[in-house]
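Quarterly update from the structural biology core.
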Amino acid sequence: MMTTTGIGLVARPQSQISKKLLQRAVTTIRSIGFRVLIERETLEAYPDVSGDDVFSLESNPPSRIVVIGGDGTLLRVGLRLGARSGDVVLMAVRAGKRGFLMDVGPEELEPALRDFVEGRLQVISHSRLRSSLRGEQLPCVLNDVVVFTREGTLVRLDVYQGSERVMGVDGDGIIVSTTTGSTAYSLNAGGPIIDPKLDVMILTPLNPVQLFLRSVVLSSNEEINLRLRPDSGPALLILDGQLKYLVEAGDTISIGQCKEPLRVARRYWWSGYYERLYARLLSYW
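Predicted structure, tokenized:
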């Protein structure tokens, strides 16, 4: 069941910056004339922030939610929403200097909130990837699906697109990222920057023994299978850096496009995209 009578608020816990932005958001939403809905875990983290009702991302998310924090906060919200993400529009507010996916800065919170509530922001549908392991369908990811060595031993796997073998990797594992995720872990591992208007998946090997291996870009409309060989060491399957699953030799991980995108209302996304990206990369220097 969807809650449709208010604006939802989710904030990163244990952050004084997030708390102050949360309090400002509560005041602004009420001044516009909407009810304030606080996400359950956010309320547990900040019990002195007063809302009009409580909601759960897993069971009754409102149709509009303001997410306050860093990139990890937005990734967690997407994972927790699951298939309900298609019915929800998010606004991403950056709490701090970093957070490339969080395009609304603290200084513009109030006007951005008004634009969000009154429907003046552009809604961007970010494609996501689904994956399954041993027959279990796993939550869709906004950034990446990663297979990574669990005990420091060599991960040996083959990547198939249909019946065609795309590559074999002997190393620490592999990153399968979305277009959005191309500027995250995949980029750190030597993968390419992908234009945000493209809809592809990027395969980036992690420290392969085969020095000639490079990233491969595939259509996101195709399904791929990662098959751990019988002689592979154990690995972890990591979704958006948040959820972890044990993977054993002989397992197959199927990855394809998720039916439900993550919809985010943006003030600035296409405009100055590369300038913002390089500024964010420089902030880590």
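The mean pLDDT is 94.
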